Amino acid sequence: MLFVSKLNESEFKSPFAFGLARQFHGMWAMLMQGIEKIPDGEWHHGRDKWFYSLRVYHIIETSEFYARDTHEGMQWGKRLGKVNWWEEMSHEEAAKLVPKKEVIKYMGEMKRRITKQLKAFSDEDLVKTDDFHWFSGIYEKYIYLLRHNSYHIGELTYALHTLECERIEWG
Q1: Measured distance CA(90)–CA(50) in Å, rounded
Q2: What is the pTM of this model?
Q3: CA-CA distance, 18 to 118, in Å (whole number)?
Q4: Which domain holds residue 97?
Q5: How many domains does the chain have?
Q6: How deeply is 112 buried, as exposed, middle or buried, from its count of CB atoms within 10 A (0-12, 13-18, 19+)?
């Protein structure tokens, strides 16, 4: 599988950051399964504001958001032409927006970025705060991101089940 990889603990400054990286790698592996297991004809399954492809994109884009030092200046939907998540769209509109190949590329970028960041964090760095003032520190921000992504991977798993596809396995 493309996103399952071994991590070398000696490359990390902090055992806590290493633990976070391991959990993120498991999350990326599960998300990749969600991409692989959905038939191409169902990639844009959904309606109104919920489409499988857009949910996958949302997981990755939110990872980009929280991997930043500030909540300001994020260009949401920039890879999709400024998608507004809160507006309803048709199946046809969703199908034009999110090609699987681009989503996989974006996910790889975010996996590498977050792993690189985590390798650089010391224990002291993880308890520092950044411009995401609603978190007690960077460590909590990354825990929150894991919870957020897990929630949406659960939605993908349910969609796969509903479509009678093979479900995502624990990673």
Answers
A1: 10
A2: 0.89
A3: 7
A4: 9-162
A5: 1
A6: exposed
- Rounded CA Rg of the chain: 16
pLDDT in tens, the chain (171 residues): 444 568 899 999 999 999 999 999 999 999 999 999 999 999 988 877 788 998 999 999 999 999 999 999 988 888 877 666 556 666 566 666 778 999 999 999 999 999 999 999 999 999 999 999 999 999 999 999 999 999 999 999 999 999 999 999 987
Q: Is residue 151 part of a domain?
A: yes
The sign of the CA dihedral 10, 14, 16, 18 is negative
In-domain check, residue 40: yes
Task: For CA atoms 31, 36, 41, 42, give the dihedral sign.
Answer: negative
What CATH number has the domain bearing residue 28?
1.20.120.450
Which segments within the chain are labelled E, that is strand? 46-47, 50-51
Alpha helices in 38-137 (DSSP H): 52-66, 91-97, 100-120, 123-127
